[in-house]
Amino acid sequence: MNVNFDIPPLLVLGPGLVAFAAVTAVRARRSRPGWTGRHAVLRIATAVYAAAVLSITVFPLTVTWGQYANQNPWYSQINFIPLITFDVTAVPNVIMFVPLGMLLPLISRVSGVRRATVVSLLASLCVELAQLLSYVVFNNGRACDVNDLLANALGGLIGCLLVRAALGRPSPAALLRAVALPGSAAHDRRAAVTAVTAV
């Protein structure tokens, strides 16, 4: 049987975003700490960002079986050699993860550049593995590239450095602490100072 169709991102990510927005609205209505006002906006913005990344990197899911399927072995879709093909085309991958590096101190305890880079690298690895899995299961043209991991990690590093620079100035630091989730690195004054100095 020959099969060839696409699963659009809106079909999968749309309901997820709606459900998260509904949960956020309910918790905001009940005045749950960390779920009202600016915090609710930050949570929804983070969810929208995550959905946008998935819509670019994983979706649409092209399902191909039969004569339409990609016949190359799955391991042929992996580029293990770094930097050889690392060129200007990596710039979008760098830019895509800058917001993640900026969000981490605002939504989690991640404050240091090293930890932000590691988290960005792990997030990128999850994306690459999802792409590889989609190739194995759906026989589409998704590929994995170690250069994507490096570019994404660099983007997370840049984003974290931008937040660190902002936390070093009184006015931006006050704004970031007001927006940051309770318990996050940027929300806690001492953690915010650590975020500026930590590696």
Structure report:
The protein has 199 residues and is mainly alpha-helical. It has one domain (3-197). It has helices at 9-29, 37-57, 91-107, 113-138, 146-167, 170-179, 189-197; strands at residues 3-7, 61-65, 78-79, 144-145. The protein starts with a strand and ends with a helix. The relative contact order is 0.15. The model has no long low-confidence stretch (mean pLDDT 87).
Explain the layout of strands and helices.
Layout: E1 3-7, H1 9-29, H2 37-57, E2 61-65, E3 78-79, H3 91-107, H4 113-138, E4 144-145, H5 146-167, H6 170-179, H7 189-197
Parallel strand pairs: 3-4
Antiparallel strand pairs: 1-2
Helix pairs in contact: 1-2, 2-3, 3-5, 4-5, 5-7
Summarize the structure.
With 199 residues, the protein is mainly α. Helices cover 63% and strands 7% of the residues.
Features:
two-stranded antiparallel ribbon, two-stranded parallel sheet, 7 helices, 199 residues, flat, mainly alpha
